[in-house]
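To whoever is on call:

I kicked off a structure prediction for a single chain this morning and the downstream step that reads the tokens threw a length-mismatch warning. I double-checked the sequence; it's 139 residues and nothing unusual in it as far as I can see. Pasting both halves so you can look.
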Amino acid sequence: MALKRRHKISPNFSMASMTDIIFLLLIFFMITSTMVSPNAIKVLLPQGRQQTSAKPLTRVIIDKQLNFYTAFGNEDEMPIDLEELPAFLQRCAEKEPDMYVALYADEAVPYREIVRVLNIANENHFKMVLATRPPEKKR
């Protein structure tokens, strides 16, 4: 007479115990992380009344008619030829070695003109910032 087993062995793995362990580890790390206080120095920083931002030291402006203008610091914008731009930027760099150049171009300016200025700055290792300029109001 053949005897048959009544209990079959299941090849499946039960994930219930694994999820319990993960849940307990999660609780453990959450509780211990709140108890740990970093050793940091508390610094009282001064509060300013106005928002200040770093302003570019040198500006290059291209208007709709493809006229180039430059200015250093708070100086007024002066017209310049594109061939004179590298020399102007070198003079500005002598005054302020860590200067960067902001390029303001009208939206009607062809992209190749912008790339020409970017290439001049790249060849002379200047930091460039592409900026926008509000449209000029018609008078």
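Update from on-call: the warning came from a stale cache, not from the record. Cleared it. Sanity check on the structure: The mean pLDDT is 80.
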